[in-house]
Specification:
Blueprint lengths: L3 E6 L6 H11 L5 E7 L15 H26 L5 E7 L6 H8 L5 E5 L6 H13 L4 E4 L10 E6 L3 H9 L1 H6 L2 E8 L5 H17 L4 E7 L4 H11 L4 E5 L5 H7 L2 H8 L4 E4 L1
Helix pairs in contact: 3-4, 8-10
Length: 275
């Protein structure tokens, strides 16, 4: 169950889709949304011969305090439009990076909701990677104009990996609410069909014991695996994709691309990632 949903307002303004998705996760279990508002201050590093005057730090702190208060008011106004219980926390450690702020606050929640609108710039990608790899919590990434709809159709992007298994387990509360659950296996030319079919049969049987009736779809990879998953999500009218995140080293995905990066930047619907 998702009882505590962390909604970080760190990388910029929150979209209505991210706020609405956080509330949608909380409502089925009477959970609450914890909005974490933070402002990160950049301070030019002093050299051996030059020291910044104390007034520089005082002025930056005053500006950050004012900016934090304004952003907290804006986030509270967004959440007040919903009926979900919420709390707005202003994080006063202005000298930490956004990733450090998020990691400090993410360990005692059930899921993190990030605004996908920020995921296509460097700062947003760093925040997403820090949340996914550093928190130990699943991350729901929400496209700017596509909020989560619970009780709809869920597409599970499956492969035989620890990350996919973790994402499936983390998504069970949403799978139990879903109208339809489809497990998608993207086939490659060198896949061993018999081994893959046996694994999928065990997976469907496992979900059935969890009270989830799921169907299996096996499709051949088109241009990339990520594009194949996103395309099938559109064709199957999925409302949510469940996927493992960074199943190969993150540095390789950042340089060469990969399923996580493709879905992070191009998914037509929200994606629940786990690592």
């Amino acid at each position: 169950m998702f009882k505590d949903i962390l909604l970080p307002a760190i990388a910029g303004d929150l979209s209505d889709a991210a706020v609405g998705s956080s509330c949608a996760l909380a409502q089925p279990t009477d959970g609450r949304v914890i909005a974490l508002v933070a402002v990160s201050v950049f301070v030019p590093g002093p050299t051996e011969w030059v020291r910044n005057p104390l007034a520089t730090y005082t002025t930056l702190h005053q500006a950050a305090t004012a900016a934090l208060a304004e952003r907290m008011r804006n986030v509270e106004a967004q959440l007040a439009r919903h009926t979900t219980e919420y709390e707005v926390i202003g994080w006063p450690a202005f000298w930490l990076t956004p990733e450090e702020v998020l990691a400090t606050n993410a360990h005692a929640v059930d899921v993190i909701v990030l605004d996908g609108g920020h995921a296509q710039d460097d700062r947003g990608r760093r925040l997403f990677a820090g949340a996914l790899v550093g928190s130990g919590r699943p991350v729901l990434l929400v496209p700017a104009r596509q909020p989560l709809r619970t009780g709809g159709n869920v597409l599970v992007a499956w492969k035989d990996s620890a990350e996919a298994a973790r994402s499936l387990h983390d998504a069970l509360p949403l799978l139990r609410l879903a109208h339809r659950v489809e497990v998608l296996v993207v086939s490659h030319a060198d896949d061993k069909a018999t081994t893959q079919d046996d694994g999928c049969a065990r997976l469907l049987a496992h979900l059935k014991r969890q009270g989830i009736e799921a169907t299996l779809a096996q499709v051949a990879r088109t241009i990339t695996t990520g594009a194949t998953i996103a395309g099938h999500a559109v064709d199957s009218q999925a409302d949510l994709i469940v996927a493992g995140g960074y199943s190969r080293p993150r540095a390789l995905e950042q340089v060469f691309g990969g399923v996580t990066r493709y879905l992070m930047e191009h998914s037509p619907v929200p994606v629940l990632f786990s690592h």
